[in-house]
Design goal:
By secondary structure, the chain is an all-alpha fold. It has 6 helices and no strands. The chain has one domain.
Length: 161
């Protein structure tokens, strides 16, 4: 691939990461502000009709099971996790889009840690969604590394001997 194509893919992947980070922040804020009973009631309202039609519906059944275990403690965990995860990624995305040298290695380290955590969670949940997110993160890390090499090369060339 040519450097310009990789750069476009890098920018697109970083923008997608930024959009995902904003969604996480909004979700974290929503969880922090909405009561557990409201969340449980919403899940029941959304899944009730589907479970009446098909008591074995995969998605509705899993949402119901999740809602039954949803507590104040899990609410605080999810809100904190989404907000902190989202805010860290927003800061890194801003740094990457502005070409800040610190943001490339920081992003690689943070994404690497997120990947480790996602794989750890996958070992307990078996969630295919976590594998998809992890695969996307690996691709983004590759693009960040490629872009970082280009940025470092440009800085080395611009630096007087």
């Amino acid at each position: 691939m040519k450097d310009e194509q990789v750069h476009r893919a890098f920018r697109l992947s970083v923008l997608l990461k930024g959009a995902h980070a904003l969604i996480e922040c909004i979700g974290g804020l929503a969880l922090a502000l909405i009561s557990t009973q409201t969340v449980i009631g919403l899940v029941r309202a959304v899944t009730q009709e589907e479970l009446v039609e098909d008591p074995h519906d995969f998605l509705a059944g899993h949402l119901q099971a999740w809602a039954q275990g949803y507590s104040l403690q899990s609410k605080h965990f999810y809100a904190f996790y989404l907000l902190s995860h989202g805010l860290v990624k927003v800061l890194l995305v801003i740094g990457l889009l502005r070409g800040k040298a610190w943001s490339y290695p920081a992003s690689l380290v943070v994404l690497g840690l997120f990947i480790l955590y996602q794989l750890y969670r996958y070992s307990y949940t078996g969630s295919v969604g976590l594998l998809v997110l992890t695969a996307f993160d690996v691709v983004v890390m590759g693009l960040i590394w490629w872009e970082y090499r280009l940025v470092r090369h440009k800085l080395d060339v611009a630096r007087p001997p």
